[in-house]
Every structure is written in structure tokens, then in C-alpha cells.
Design brief:
The protein is mainly beta and about 120 residues long. The strands form 2 sheets. Strands 2, 4, 5, 6, 9, 10 and 11 form a 7-stranded mixed sheet that branches. The termini are far apart.
Amino acid sequence: QVKLVESGGGLVQPGGSLRLSCAASGSIASAIFMDWYRQAPGNSREFVARINSAGTTNYEASVKDRFTVSRDNAQNTVYLQMDSLTPDDTAVYSCHILLQTQLGPRAYWGQGTEVTVSS
């Protein structure tokens, strides 16, 4: 069992930046990929960014060139650097990991961290 804990959310003005962290209770070295998702009030959860085991990244179109996902295997942590934030980025951000285990792939979710972009 792996527990994921997100942090770094908060209130920021439009145009500002935040860095979210997702700390895993165990090693992420065997992670097939790690994602960030977000859910705005009244909306369904949507994909934001992914980093796979090779370090390849991909992004949802509206955040590409503004957000950067990275991972630190030594710290068992995945990050989401968010720049040029807009009110449309307001949401609860959650991380998701697909781990390769001896029993096969296992998926885990964090509880989320809230991001509010407002003046």
C-alpha cells in the first residue's frame, strides 16, 4: 500500500505561481507513470499532466507551456510547477500513480490540495 500526500496549494493572484508536491510513502522508482488531475467546482475530474518512467511528459492543452511536471525518485516525490495561473486553474489538484508491483500494476490516488486563483 502506498499513500500519496499532496501539498503546496493555496490562494494565489492571477499571473502568479505555485509548486505542488506529491509525496509517496514508498518508493516511486517502479512507477509506470505519475499524473496530476484536477477537479473544479461543479466539473468532472480532468487530466492535467503526466510523467512516465522514462521521464517523458505530456500535458493537457490549456496548461501546456505554463505547467511543468517533474519527479524526484530519491525523494519519492512528484512536482507540478504552475506558472501564469488564471482563475480557470482554480480546482482541487490530485496526484495519481500507477506502480508496477509483484502482483501487477496498482493505482493509487492522493486526497488532493486546493488551488484558488483570485484577485
